[in-house]
Design goal:
Elements: H1 5-8, H2 34-47, H3 50-54, H4 56-67, H5 69-78, H6 80-84, H7 90-102, E1 106-110, H8 125-145, E2 155-159, H9 167-180, H10 188-197, H11 208-230, E3 233-237, H12 245-259, E4 269-274, H13 280-294, E5 298-303, H14 308-318, H15 328-349, E6 353-358, H16 362-375, E7 383-388, H17 393-402, E8 406-411, H18 415-428, H19 430-434, H20 437-451
Parallel strand pairs: 1-2, 1-8, 2-3, 3-4, 4-5, 5-6, 6-7, 7-8
Helix pairs in contact: 2-20, 4-5, 8-11, 9-12, 10-11, 10-12, 13-15, 15-16
Length: 460
Amino acid sequence: MLWTCRVLCPQAGPSAGGWQPLSFDGGAFHLKRTGELTRALLVLRLCGWPPLVTHGLALQAWSQRLLGSRLSGALLRASIYGQFVAGETAEEVRGCVQQLQTLCLRPLLAVPTEEEPDSAVKIGEAWYEGNLSAMLRCVDLSRGLLEAPGPTGNILMQLKMTALTSTRLCRELTSWVRRLGASWELSPERLAEAMDSGRGLQISCLNAEQNQHLQSSLSRLHRVAQHAQAQRVRLLVDAEYTSLNPALSLLVAALAERWNRPGEGGPWVWNTYQAYLKDTHERLRRDAEAADRAGLAFGVKLVRGAYLDKEREVARLQGTQDPTQPDYEATNQSYSRCLELMLAHVSHRGPMCHLMVASHNEESVQQATKRMWELGIPLDGPVCFGQLLGMCDHVSLALGQAGYAVYKSIPYGSLEEVIPYLIRRAQENRSVLRGARREQELLSQELRRRLLGRGLGGPR
């Protein structure tokens, strides 16, 4: 039986008395059914097994050959797909979101697309135009899922830039951005004007085909942002590899010139900053101050980062400097500094600056909640929290029960679309999966408590 959010969710507001740290001891697991807890424990243990993650695509193909598509699909739906994916149809997604809402959690929908087209079908403008249609449908679905948005009206969805523009063009733009610096020809203002006007854009460092693709890409980005703003949906742009990020940041800055202007209702386009990169704190400081000077709203999703192994391998093969922090502790320190910087900006700029603390790390979440209290930032204001669907529920549920705005990143789509996407994300997030041991321990404790007959009042 699902409990209503009116019963489970407290009213957001300032904490009475002094700040009290949240308890991430799994106590909020009593809100979940036994079947959900059992599946979560089994799937997280499977995902923590390195061979399964490394050879996931091959194992999926082998399973289909051995068991047949129907039985293999049924097993996936009952396990990995059911744990990490909202569903295939709009109705299935709606059911998942309604269940999250009863737990005081909010949806952050994500269209599962790969940044590197890997088949003959996934090339050319037709593939990107198809992704544009999927993104526009995601905007509509995000808006339709929440009949009564929260007090701040924040409906969020993820946007992957390389679903709408090619990685080859992004690498080319990145090389020129690094070479030319802040040139007028590759300025956000010029790209924003091209988005608005729709007139052909000519960049001297690009050939005719690249210029045409850039103009088409700008048109697609403009259409998504325009539709999202009309539907009151905020776009959180995913960060990717360092070989692409300067170009992606340029495109985000162009969108911000158009859609994050004063009087528009806060930032409609947010960028993602990866704390595991050495230069992130300086870039974040520079970008935040530039937005402040320009009077633009500023939206940030702050993550640790997911491409550590590949970034280091590429740097080794190319003989270039490793762009990543030397170890996990240095990444933690970087995240803490970036978090402190952004919370100070939120405190200073109010609704013109929004932040998602996208972290599974308990210490980072505690730091954020404590500083929010010290700075007088309301629980359901410009700062929110984000975790992946199916993971870190002991943190998400505790935050939601305390009245904070908490979003779960939710991929959706068919098995054929989502399973390869999930496997690649698992390969990129090995450290997160390895770090789920504490969650597994808490899940085991709650299941033992129920099996031993104590606390049978929890959901079945």
